[in-house]
Specification:
The complex is a heterodimer of chains A (115) and B (109). With 115 residues, chain A is mainly beta. In chain A, strands 2, 4, 5, 6, 9, 10 and 11 form a seven-stranded mixed β-sheet that branches. Chain A has a four-stranded antiparallel β-sheet with strand order 1-3-8-7, with no helix packed on it. In chain A, strand 4 and strand 5 form a beta hairpin. The relative contact order of chain A is 0.33. With 109 residues, chain B is mostly beta strands. Classes of the chains: A mainly beta (115), B mainly beta (109).
Chain lengths: 115, 109
Amino acid sequence: IAGITQAPTSQILAAGRRMTLRCTQDMRHNAMYWYRQDLGLGLRLIHYSNTAGTTGKGEVPDGYSVSRANTDDFPLTLASAVPSQTSVYFCASSDSPSGGYNEQFFGPGTRLTVL
Amino acid sequence: GQNIDQPTEMTATEGAIVQINCTYQTSGFNGLFWYQQHAGEAPTFLSYNVLDGLEEKGRFSSFLSRSKGYSYLLLKELQMKDSASYLCAPMDSNYQLIWGAGTKLIIKP
């Protein structure tokens, strides 16, 4: 694989169910991010990780959790899905969490519908 | 608070030039990014400005004025494939990107 992969591509989920969105990168980037994108709104940061073993809360963390057990993987879990979590979810990574020219690379996204 | 303002939609003609403006207010500033996002796809990096002035990269140029909290993306020799949304994203003092809602650019033949 090259870059960032996300799984699944899309999912329809019943409200109240637990769901984990997977994200894997092979660029050995230190920082990883989860965003949601809703129509008419900018990308909103859910959680981030500056390096393996650490995580932080973004702008909209409620209802979501993450873990960063190693450099490559950064799964996002919805413990009990609600319809307001219907969105497109993007995982991204960057070489460094700080400092200057620090482009974020994005995965292809997961389209999640909660009914 | 932090705020990004850019036009919702713009229309331009193939072969022409278009300028997409972005004004921002952030807590601290560590540069500004522009990304392109085609419908149904992920954002991809276009440009980064940290100092005032113009950065040119082929048909695309980006300008920054830190004192005015203002940036623009200039696209020349427009092609149909440039139809996409363009996202302005300044980086705040915590090195987090603050994303605008994006400008949808429609290119007409």
